[in-house]
């Protein structure tokens, strides 16, 4: 599992995700302040004024950054992430966000627990790499329709990405065909992808060389050394991977074992076995499973 997109509040230690106490407290403060009535902008200003580090270790906060944290369901805990926010507080925050969106007449379906689609955060654009989001058209009218569109379809009032739009039903249908393909031939689950080649982490190599030079010179008391060691650890963390393909393959086999062919979309199965879905312009979806296996289907 790649850890390039680990939410703030967590860290990777010996291949396992753990709470990063100082930043976990920042996340808790955000949830508590929002639940108490503070606005996104007020929270962002307070965090910046307090000099608290964001996910990039910079003391700069924006309302959009706060919004993404409040929307992240991983903070409730899952198979990989330990719980950071208790369910009661998380749901209280989502209720308030839902009320605010309704009051402001917003149509965008954000990635919160109460409004989240099973496809939220899963769909990626095969053209620009950005996320797909769900938009509603003709709200309040009989002609209301919803589509998944690349987030960069319209950016700063310009069309920036021309990838396809698609509906929930198209995604469900494509997954159904993929799932039935596996059910009728489960041997394909044993095709564990080759491990990704080691990343040439030039930043780590440069820092490691500098540290060894200082150590060779006997400069163990240098103030520069602890800072370099810390930066080297950060550089290594940014390219860390957890090799869990075999474990996840067994998990997938259990999920598919003994199933008859599906006649309808199974949301629980989708959430169990799918890591990401890439949307391509040629009416094709690439489903990436939790063990790294990829299969394609038309939509």
TrEMBL record:
Pfam families: Recombinase, Zn_ribbon_recom. It comes from the Bacteria. Transmembrane segments: none annotated. The keyword DNA-binding applies. It comes from Sinanaerobacter chloroacetimidivorans. One of its GO terms (molecular function) is DNA strand exchange activity. PROSITE patterns: RECOMBINASE_DNA_BIND (PS51737). The keyword NADP does not apply. InterPro entries: DNA_bind_recomb_sf, DNA_bind_recombinase_dom, SSR_resolvase, Zn_ribbon_recom_dom. Residues 7-107 form the Recombinase domain. This is Recombinase family protein.
